[in-house]
Specification:
The protein is an alpha/beta fold. The chain is 33% helix and 25% strand.
């Protein structure tokens, strides 16, 4: 890999299989890295603040807090 900074990606989805698949695809890219994954809205807020990613992939229909909220 070259000296470019990797794109830091964060995903939030209540379906574990979907989160794992997205992480596998992201981590297979030379210029991206999955920095965190959340399984619900509250966890997403906490992890977003902690990791401050470049890109967030957010499920808009989660059980506790929607991705829109």
């Amino acid at each position: 890999m070259n000296s470019k900074r990797k794109i830091r990606v964060f995903s939030a989805d209540d379906h574990p299989l979907l989160r794992e698949g997205i992480a596998a695809i992201i981590n297979n890219q030379d210029d991206m890295v999955m920095v965190a994954q959340a399984s619900n809205g509250r966890e997403a807020i906490q992890l977003y603040r902690e990791h401050q990613p470049d890109v967030t992939l957010m499920d808009v229909r989660m059980p506790d807090i929607s991705g829109i909220d």
